[in-house]
């Protein structure tokens, strides 16, 4: 099923919780700049920030939200960063 890139975060989280990985990709693309900036601000090293971002993006991918609360998934993006 093709997912609309302009779908609400809550809709995307619900789809991801049902196993739709495309919905997760849209969410990650939506928040990746903020997440990378947060990591870079924390470590203040571009190469290390990129490594952490790549590793954590993969780690987030295997997390399935327990419910359809978008705040939990977005918080998850930022909570697993050192």
Write the layout of secondary structure elements.
Elements: H1 9-17, H2 21-43, H3 46-61, H4 70-79
What does this structure look like?
The protein is mainly alpha-helical. The protein has helices at residues 9-17, 21-43, 46-61, 70-79. Helix 1 packs across helix 2 and helix 2 runs antiparallel to helix 3 (46-61). The chain is elongated, with a radius of gyration of 13 Å. The model has no long low-confidence stretch (mean pLDDT 79).
How would you summarize this macromolecular structure in one to three sentences?
This protein is mostly helical. It is built from four helices and no strands. Helix content is 71%, strand content 0%.
Uncertain residue ranges: none
- From the alpha carbons, calculate the radius of gyration and give it in angstroms: 13 Å
SSE pattern, N- to C-terminal: HHHH
Distance between the termini: 35 Å
Backbone structural class: mainly alpha
- Largest sheet, described in full? none
Q: Classify the beta-strand content into a percent band.
A: under 5%
How many E-type strands?
Answer: 0
* Helix percentage: over 70%
Number of helices: 4
**What does the overall shape look like?**
elongated
Mean pLDDT: 79
What features would you highlight for this structure?
single chain; 82 residues; mainly alpha; 71% helix
């Amino acid at each position: 099923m093709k997912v609309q890139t302009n779908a609400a975060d809550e809709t995307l989280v619900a789809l991801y919780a049902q196993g739709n990985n495309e919905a997760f990709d849209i969410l990650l693309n939506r928040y990746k700049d903020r997440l990378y900036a947060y990591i870079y601000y924390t470590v203040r090293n571009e190469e290390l920030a990129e490594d952490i971002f790549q590793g954590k993006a993969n780690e987030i991918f295997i997390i399935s939200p327990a419910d359809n609360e978008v705040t939990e998934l977005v918080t998850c993006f930022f909570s697993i960063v050192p």
